[in-house]
C-alpha cells in the first residue's frame, strides 16, 4: 500500500467494523464509543471536536481534572471554529470526557495525543508517552484500532504498543489494529481546517493500515498510507526538521541583510514570487511550541546511537537553540549604541507566547530571554494580555503589566505581536527591538 491515498470522507460509524477489513475475532463487538482520544491538549481536543463534528461518538480521556474543567467551562484556547464545535459537543451525549482510563475499552478506536517534550539538555522526555501507551495497552480489547499520533522516535509504535500488546497475547493485525499517524495541527492557524489536511498513516500490517485509514477518513478528506509505522514516524520528523533548517537559514539571512543594509522581509517576499523551488520562511526571536524545537531532537537523539553524523540538522538546531541568547546580545548592542549599559536597564518584552494569537508558552524564546536578562541585573517586565503571570526557567515568576507605556522602558523587545493587541503606543518608545521583522515604519526601530 506504499503511497496509497484514500480520498473522500464518508459519513460512517466505527461501531461493529466489518470483518472483511482484517479478521478480528471480535468483529461483531459493539462499542459504546466510536473513538477515544487520550490527551485533550492542543492536539487532542481539536481532533476530538473534528471527529465529533463528523458524526463520531467521542470519548475524551485526560488525567488532569483541571484540564477537563477548563474544557467543560469553555475556557480552552481554541480557534473560533473549534469554540463553536465545543459548545455543540458539550451539549451532546455523543461526546463525553473522563479521567477514568478503564473506559478506553468501550471505544472501537483509541487515538493517543500526548506531549513529547525534551528536557533541559534537549534529551527526549518519554515519560508521558510511556505512561499513556501503558494505559492504552492495559485497557485494549480485541477488535480495537490503536493509533499513536504523538511525535517521537522511529520505532516507538512497535516498542510501546505492538510489543507490549503481544506480551498480553494480542497480535497486531489479527486481534488489534495498530498504526502511527502523525498529528498535523498548527495552533492559531485558521487557514488550514483539520478536515482539509491529509493524514499520513502507517500500519503494522496492511489490515492495520486499512482500519486506521477508516478511522481517520471519518473526518479527514484524504489519508495517505505509507508502508509501516516507522515510515509514518519518520515523515513527521522530516516535516519539522525541514522547517527547523529553513527557519535557521532565515535567521541567518536576517543578520546578513542587516549587515548589508536591507530589509530581510523585502528580500523574502521578493523571492517568494518565484512560483517554483522556493518556500518562504521568516526570521524571529527563536522557535517555540511543541514541534520545531523538540521534534528534530528526537531524531538527533536516536541517530547518536547509530553514530551517524548529520551536520546540517545539528547546526540548524544549535542555531535555533542559541537564538534567544542572540536576542539578549542584540539588546545589549542596541543600548550600547545609545550610550546605555545592560546592567540596571529597563526592558519590556511585548508578547511572550511562542507565536501570535495562541495562549501557549511551551518552549517560548521569551522565557529564556527574560531569564537571561534578569541574571544580567536587568529590570524586566512583560506585556501580554493572554497571560496574567509567567514562570521563567530559573523559577522566577513575573506578573504582566497592564499599561506598557507606564513601565518607562529603556528598550522594548517586540517578541510576539498578537493581532488583537494595539501596538500604537510603541511610537513613543525610545528604542524598539523588532524581533518580528514586521514593524518597518516604527520610529527608533532596530532588528536582530
Structure description:
The protein is an alpha/beta fold and 448 residues long. It has two domains: 4-12 and 20-226, NAD(P)-binding Rossmann-like Domain (Rossmann fold), CATH 3.40.50; 270-447, Rossmann fold (3-Layer(aba) Sandwich). Helix content is 34%, strand content 15%. It contains eleven helices and 16 strands. It has helices at 44-53, 65-72, 80-90, 127-139, 156-167, 206-216, 229-259, 264-271, 295-306, 311-337, 365-375, and strands at residues 4-7, 33-38, 58-61, 95-98, 107-112, 145-148, 177-180, 199-203, 222-226, 346-350, 379-383, 389-391, 397-399, 411-414, 432-434, 445-447. Strands 1-9-8-7-6-5-2-3-4 form a nine-stranded mixed sheet, with helices on both faces. Helix 5 (156-167) links the parallel strand 6 and strand 7. Helix 7 (229-259) crosses helix 9 (295-306). The longest helix is centred in the middle third of the chain and has 31 residues, at 229-259. The radius of gyration is 24 Å and the shape is globular. Mean pLDDT is 93; it is low at 8-28.
Amino acid at each position: 500500500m506504499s503511497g496509497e491515498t484514500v480520498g473522500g470522507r464518508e459519513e460512517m460509524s466505527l461501531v461493529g467494523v466489518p470483518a472483511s477489513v482484517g479478521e478480528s475475532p471480535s468483529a461483531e463487538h459493539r462499542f459504546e464509543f466510536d473513538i477515544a482520544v487520550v490527551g485533550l491538549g492542543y492536539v487532542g481536543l481539536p481532533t476530538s471536536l473534528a471527529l465529533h463534528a463528523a458524526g463520531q461518538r467521542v470519548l475524551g480521556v485526560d488525567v488532569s481534572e483541571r484540564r477537563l474543567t477548563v474544557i467543560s467551562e469553555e475556557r480552552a484556547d481554541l480557534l473560533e471554529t473549534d469554540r463553536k464545535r465545543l459548545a455543540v459537543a458539550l451539549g451532546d451525549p455523543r461526546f463525553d470526557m473522563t479521567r477514568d482510563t478503564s473506559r478506553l475499552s468501550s471505544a472501537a478506536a483509541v487515538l493517543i495525543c500526548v506531549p513529547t517534550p525534551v528536557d533541559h539538555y534537549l534529551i527526549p522526555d518519554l515519560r508521558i508517552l510511556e505512561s499513556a501507551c501503558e494505559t492504552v495497552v492495559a485497557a485494549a480489547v480485541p477488535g480495537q484500532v490503536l493509533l499513536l499520533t504523538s511525535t517521537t522516535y522511529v520505532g516507538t509504535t512497535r516498542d510501546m504498543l505492538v510489543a507490549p500488546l503481544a506480551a498480553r497475547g494480542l497480535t497486531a493485525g489479527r486481534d488489534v489494529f495498530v498504526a502511527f499517524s502523525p498529528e498535523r495541527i498548527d495552533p492559531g492557524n485558521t487557514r488550514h481546517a483539520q478536515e482539509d489536511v491529509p493524514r499520513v498513516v502507517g500500519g503494522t500490517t496492511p489490515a492495520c493500515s486499512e482500519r486506521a485509514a477508516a478511522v481517520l477518513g471519518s473526518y479527514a478528506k484524504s489519508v495517505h498510507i505509507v508502508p509501516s509505522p516507522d515510515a509514518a514516524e519518520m515523515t513527521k520528523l522530516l516535516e519539522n526538521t525541514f522547517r527547523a533548517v529553513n527557519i535557521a537559514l532565515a535567521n541567518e539571512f536576517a543578520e546578513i541583510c542587516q549587515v548589508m543594509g536591507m530589509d530581510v522581509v523585502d528580500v523574502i517576499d521578493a523571492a517568494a514570487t518565484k512560483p517554483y523551488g522556493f518556500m518562504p520562511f521568516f526570521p524571529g526571536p527563536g522557535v517555540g511550541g511543541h514541534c520545531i524545537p523538540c521534534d528534530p531532537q528526537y531524531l538527533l537523539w536516536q541517530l547518536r546511537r547509530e553514530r551517524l553524523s548529520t551536520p546540517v540538522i545539528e547546526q540548524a538546531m544549535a542555531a535555533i537553540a542559541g537564538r534567544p541568547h542572540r536576542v539578549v546580545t542584540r539588546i545589549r548592542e542596541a543600548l550600547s549604541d545609545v550610550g546605555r549599559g545592560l546592567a540596571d536597564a529597563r526592558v519590556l518584552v511585548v508578547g511572550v507566547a511562542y507565536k501570535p494569537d495562541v495562549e501557549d508558552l511551551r518552549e517560548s524564546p521569551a522565557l529564556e530571554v527574560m531569564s537571561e536578562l534578569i541574571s544580567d541585573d536587568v529590570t524586566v517586565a512583560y506585556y501580554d494580555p493572554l497571560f496574567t503571570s509567567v514562570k521563567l526557567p530559573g523559577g522566577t515568576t513575573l506578573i504582566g503589566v497592564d499599561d506598557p507605556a507606564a513601565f518607562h522602558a529603556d528598550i522594548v523587545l517586540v517578541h510576539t505581536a498578537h493581532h488583537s493587541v494595539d501596538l500604537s503606543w510603541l511610537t513613543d518608545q525610545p528604542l524598539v527591538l523588532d524581533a518580528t521583522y514586521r514593524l518597518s515604519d516604527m520610529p527608533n526601530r532596530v532588528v536582530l
